[in-house]
Design goal:
This protein folds into three domains: 3-82, Arc Repressor Mutant, subunit A (Orthogonal Bundle), CATH 1.10.10.10; 91-164 and 268-294, D-Maltodextrin-Binding Protein, domain 2 (3-Layer(aba) Sandwich), CATH 3.40.190.10; 166-265, Periplasmic binding protein-like II (D-Maltodextrin-Binding Protein, domain 2, 3-Layer(aba) Sandwich), CATH 3.40.190. The chain contains eleven helices and twelve strands. It has helices at 3-14, 17-24, 28-42, 58-82, 98-103, 105-115, 131-137, 199-209, 226-235, 247-251, 281-294; strands at 47-50, 53-56, 91-96, 120-125, 142-145, 156-164, 166-171, 191-194, 219-222, 238-243, 255-259, 267-274. The strands form three sheets. Strands 4-3-5-12-6 form a five-stranded mixed sheet. The protein has a five-stranded mixed sheet with strand order 9-8-10-7-11. α1 (3-14) packs across α2 (17-24), α1 (3-14) packs across α3 (28-42) and α2 crosses α3 (28-42). The chain is elongated. The two termini are 43 Å apart.
Length: 295
């Protein structure tokens, strides 16, 4: 991609020519010169210079939106060309929601390393609010989980693999856990734990348990760790909403997960990738892994 455009994007992201030079692995003077040349070419200043760094002018903000699109198109073009190689990339960055991360991530990585021994894999856990942006920006290459439909852009390809429904994780000796289902209204006096940002499920729980018109929240404990949530449920009067597909995981800790009596919203979960990377060998292998599970 054009060096001037690279320099502009790096300074816009980092706020200083020093940090941009470090990111681009070039001299600071080179970054300064490239920015000056670009501004001269465009006939306007793109940055305001200050003691604390550089910020975009109005013209710079306008140019940034176009430059970001150019960068994305350039990256997608490289993706498509490099798809003729074996894995298609040297480092596969996978984002995974809790169901996929806790149930299948280890098995998936084993299969990928067997087929592509030189492939480096970066696995990170994400909630369903972040992946769409990270896929589009190129921070991750594939996401396994749920992404709301209205957040899926034209550049993202979605492959539904299953439907996710939440239940309620409880101690196995809790009187409310003895039936096949549990009514959330019976649990209004418990402390509720949330380990993933999921407004849909939180609204469902509160609709069952709170008086109509109440603005309170039953969620008193928030954590990004499923393991922490499990330990809290084991320790006392805590309950936690979690996908029913995690029943095997919670059972190992002496807990149970029961469907809500009136049910929770069922939503599609699956594999999301940039359309430009569908030809990558590694991406194809991820898809085959989950298709084989459903056979």
């Amino acid at each position: 991609m054009d060096k001037q455009l690279n320099a502009f994007l790096a300074v816009a992201q980092t706020g200083t020519t020093t940090a941009a030079a470090k990111q681009l692995n070039v001299a600071q003077s080179a970054v300064t010169k490239r920015i000056a040349n670009l501004e001269h070419e465009l006939g306007t200043a793109l940055f305001l210079r200050g003691h604390r760094g550089m910020s975009l002018t109005e013209a710079g903000k306008m140019f940034l939106s176009r430059a970001t699109l150019i960068e994305r198109e350039y990256r997608d073009g490289k993706d498509e060309v490099s798809a003729i190689a074996s894995a298609g990339l040297s480092n596969l960055r996978i984002g995974a929601g809790p169901v996929f991360h806790l149930n299948w991530a280890a098995g998936l990585i084993g299969v990928l390393k067997q087929e592509f021994p030189e492939l480096k894999i970066d696995l990170r856990t994400l909630n369903n609010e972040e992946p769409a942006e990270q896929l589009a920006s190129g921070e991750i290459d594939v996401y396994l989980g749920m992404i709301p439909t209205d957040r899926i852009g034209d550049s993202i390809s979605a492959h539904a693999l299953m439907q996710i429904e939440h239940g309620i994780v409880m101690r196995d000796d809790d009187p409310n856990s003895q039936g096949e289902t549990v009514h959330p209204a019976r649990l209004k006096d418990y402390d509720w734990v949330s380990f993933v940002a999921d407004p849909v499920i939180e609204r469902s729980i509160e609709r069952y348990t709170l008086p109509k018109g109440s603005e309170n929240s039953l969620i008193t404990i928030r954590t990004t760790s499923f393991a922490t949530g499990v330990q809290l449920v084991k320790s006392g009067r805590f309950v936690m909403s979690a996908p029913l597909q995690l029943g095997r995981i919670v059972k190992k800790d002496g807990l149970v997960i029961r469907p809500a009596q009136k049910g929770m919203p069922r939503r599609d979960a699956g594999m999301y990738v940039r359309s430009s990377s569908l030809g990558f060998g590694a991406i194809k292998a991820v898809r085959r892994f989950f298709e084989d599970l459903s056979d």
